[in-house]
Specification:
Blueprint: E1 2-4, E2 7-9, E3 12-16, H1 25-38, E4 43-47, H2 53-57, H3 68-72, E5 82-83, E6 88-91, H4 101-105, H5 113-125, E7 129-133, H6 140-148, E8 151-156, H7 160-178, E9 185-191, H8 198-211, H9 224-231, H10 236-239, H11 244-258
Parallel strand pairs: 3-7, 3-8, 4-6, 4-7, 8-9
Antiparallel strand pairs: 1-2, 5-6
Helix pairs in contact: 1-11, 5-6
Length: 261
């Protein structure tokens, strides 16, 4: 829940964020969104990552069509959504976003561009959830995503490099909240691509000891069906509903559905 000009909006906006590549942000965004839509929730997927992995995985990458680069730089004000199914929609990204930061910095209130855009869309579409696939950097795009969000989910591989990035993201988030009246709740840290390795077990144990309940009690195991589903532009629930990937993401969907704002 958040307030825009005294209007209460019940939509939950969740950033899937970590400034490290290959931690499962895109797979998590798509899988969570698909699971929520299967539960009857109206969901918008927002790809604000210049690498456009979410857009490509869904089979909708076309830089000649309206995309996030044009919207975030205010070159195009009318936002076109791609309808994936009855409950699931997408705002696609473009590689052009890579060089957009300079343009965005010239726009007044640059950190609120996405928030205002999503508010305008939501006044018409009334989504239950908006999920934002964030870039691999703590930049103005990630700032826009977090300023638009009510919550953040942090997917991370249980290895020293990615785990070290958690503190930087949390510090970035705390800085945002310290310097504005905006509050973002951390849903949790989600370990992804987990294997039966001593390294993974050790890193997860140490992280849980340090951070406590913010680390989610379930993990996403490394599973070939997840990669195959993306290759076929399908969610894991449609591609292989009995796979480890589907069973691993179900508790995340259930957790998000059970939370109230």
């Amino acid at each position: 829940m958040f307030t825009i000009k005294n209007q209460i909006v019940m939509t939950r906006i969740i950033s899937i964020a970590l400034h490290k590549g290959g931690t499962g942000k895109t797979t998590t965004t798509f899988s969570l969104g698909a699971g929520l839509s299967n539960a009857g929730k109206k969901v918008l997927l927002v790809d604000i990552d210049p690498q456009s992995n979410l857009t490509e995985h869904l089979g909708h990458y076309n830089p000649d069509e309206p995309n996030m680069y044009q919207y975030i730089t205010r070159k195009r004000k009318d936002v076109s959504l791609i309808k994936l199914n009855e409950n699931l929609f997408l705002i696609p990204s473009s590689l052009d976003l890579t060089g957009a930061e300079t343009e965005i910095n010239m726009i007044p209130n640059r950190d609120l561009i996405l928030k205002r855009m999503l508010t305008t869309i939501n006044q018409v579409m009334e989504f239950d959830f908006i999920l934002i696939d964030c870039p691999q950097a703590l930049n103005v795009l990630t700032l826009n995503a977090l300023m638009a969000s009510t919550e953040v989910l942090i997917p991370v591989i249980p290895e020293s490099g990615p785990v070290a990035g958690i503190n930087k993201l949390i510090m970035f988030l705390e800085s945002i909240m310290d310097n504005s009246d905006h509050t973002v709740e951390i849903i949790g840290i989600l370990f992804t691509m987990v294997q039966k390795l001593k390294l993974h077990e050790g890193v997860m144990e140490i992280t849980r000891e340090k951070l406590g309940d913010v680390v989610l009690p379930f993990v996403i195991r490394k599973n070939v069906a997840l990669a195959e589903a993306i290759f076929h532009h399908k969610s894991i629930f449609d591609y292989s509903p009995t796979s480890n990937g589907a069973s691993d993401y179900k508790p995340l969907v259930d957790l998000v559905l059970s939370k109230t704002m």
